[in-house]
Prior knowledge:
Elements: H1 17-39, H2 46-49, H3 59-76, H4 86-91, H5 114-134, H6 146-170, E1 200-203, E2 206-210, E3 226-230, E4 233-236, H7 242-250, H8 262-271, E5 279-282, E6 285-289, E7 294-296, H9 307-321, E8 325-326, H10 330-339, E9 370-371, E10 374-375, E11 382-388, E12 413-417, E13 434-437, E14 444-445, E15 449-450, H11 456-459, H12 470-480, H13 490-502, E16 509-513, H14 519-524, E17 530-535, H15 538-550, E18 552-560, E19 563-570, E20 583-587, E21 600-606, H16 615-619, E22 626-636, E23 654-656, E24 659-661, H17 663-671, E25 675-689, E26 695-707
Parallel strand pairs: 11-14, 16-17, 16-21, 17-20, 21-22
Antiparallel strand pairs: 1-4, 2-3, 4-15, 5-6, 6-7, 8-15, 9-10, 11-12, 12-13, 18-19, 22-26, 23-24, 25-26
Amino acid sequence: MSSSLFPRTPALSGDDAAAKRREIRACFHATFDRYEQLFEVLTSDAAYYEKPISLRHPLIFYFGHTATFFINKLLLAGMIESRIEPRFESMFAVGVDEMSWDDLDAAHYDWPSVEAVRAYRRQVRAAVDGVIEHMPLALPIDWDAPAWVVLMGIEHERIHLETSSVLIRQHALKHVRPHPAWQPWRIDGAAPAGAPMNGLVAIPAGEVSLGKTDASYGWDNEYGHHVAHVPAFQAARHLVSNAEFLEFVEAGGYADDAWWDAEGRAWKDYAGATQPTFWRRTDAGWRLRLMLEEVPMQWNWPVEVNNLEAAAFCAWKAARAGLPVRLPSEDEWVRLYDHAGLDEVPADAPAQANLHLDHAASSCPVDHFKQGELYDVVGNVWQWTQTPIYPFDGFRVHPLYDDFTTPTFDGRHTLFKGGAWISAGNESRRSARYAFRRHFFQHAGFRYVVGEPVSISETTVHSSNYETDKLLSEYAEFHYGDTHFGVENFPRALADLAIRAMGSLPARSALDLGCAAGRSSFELARHFEQVVGIDFSARFIGLGVQMQEQGRLRYTFAEEGELVSYHERTLTDLGLDGLRDKVAFFQGDACNLKPNFTGYDLILAANLIDRLYSPAKFLDHAHQRLNPGGLLMIATPCTWLEEHTPRAEWIGGFKRDGENFTTLDGLKAHLGAHFRLVEGPLEVPFVLRETRRKFQHTLSEVTIWERK
């Protein structure tokens, strides 16, 4: 492969494991280097700490985030034995998508110095290099293989290469400077006449098939299968250019609410938008903000807007042309790809598209890269669709990244397709499926189509409004569903025990650690002023958040075989509806919590410690999270399994010096210096329903400890 090309992500197949190992290492270093090179465009350390936009962290977070991702995933996979810098690997762990568990409160972050993060990245580079050198490697690589985890880290960093470049583009100009590695497309004149006239191309009907089958790395949402027949439609020959979008702006499109749906109007009014966000109106005329500079408006380049602006333009265009103009569906974009006869980016030659950083660090004229009868089916800028992301039939999450896509199956995240000039690796492929909130900005524009409306069933959820994931449904039922065999609801029983144990102690705040679907958080809020629920899995948190935001959960439950029952549970029916404002949910690692999670009067850790990779790390620091006199309540079935906790990390359930050493013995050993046991051990039963006739009955050992 040419040394001038940004390396493609290694294929999963091959017949030479040693060569594949060298290829993975080279790709890792090239990606790590390129990401650090992106931050070289910042003019000073101050640029790392001032937020480009209020809805994101400052850039120092993203500088550290991709490195901590490697360490957190390698640790979770058991491929490394210890952390490098626990504080960083907590602080930089979770990004922002405006989920309810996102944490944007600047007071929670004591950001480290830029040089400290650079030094940390050097340590991570060395650690990952060592993993690549010594990991077992068999071909082809499957998603249970150690090499998959390394490829996951590489692809994750390539995603952030793109998303961080957008934030830099939104940064104040004083904070950025031109850089030889990030040169834009050669700049043409600013005459509107330079933009091509758009036209429509007839796309015949055809069948599309989606679902990843090729030997390349993929994210969970790409797997499974989906087949659809796409009726004939017409598609714009070019992406909508700045010149074509100018007609909408000059026609008062931003001021006229008629073209905007309710979500679009709310965003437009909130943002005060009167033009695309990267346009600048000056006395000398329009200018265009690129990543590192402002230039005269490039009218023949694609306009870059969010999904709401693209949809408003289509509504205006439809009324003006008297045609059913709209954004394409995902299936229609795939039909364009197939009709154009496209193939993947070659491994050893530049892409025949403005893609994969093969040509420039900006978009380019919409009539430069011809692909079949169309231009820019792939590359230049991402193309918004009207399709909210949904799971294909057969979808399953990767066990090391269960919240890559699942939190976005909410109807609020819309797919865009085709990739942009900076889209590399997985992002550049036909199978790529990335979705963002409709008001977000990326390097994204759009192409309109003309055709009959696509039905809701083909574009929104492709599933019912009921949760169908087996594990999530079981936990929804366990937390909010029926009781069985006279056994009290377990989350409520624990909350009742905790509230009784508190007596007249202060009840300002409680931490529900390992909150899962969140029932105990709501129950604790009957007594406490504020309750924070934290769980490692965003999928579980999503159930609590949905209950908090909507006041109800819907899910299907397996009865027998393929037969299911449908359930709806509400906070009102449970007598908990008035407590929503007292509860907040966050994603977090109990072994490495952020420092701001402290000052609690109660910590409840329900069925948690025997599922942690290092329960001692939680237990040895629990006192730092509690106020003096506060209570720590631990419930555990003492089910120690190496699939959750390495044998060396068990705190009990084994022989020591020839004698039994129980979990309670371990708790006393770890907690004795800072706590005294005030109640227990108690046995609290719970029943987990699997099917109509299959239940698990378990006894959880409960102990209550007072911080000295």
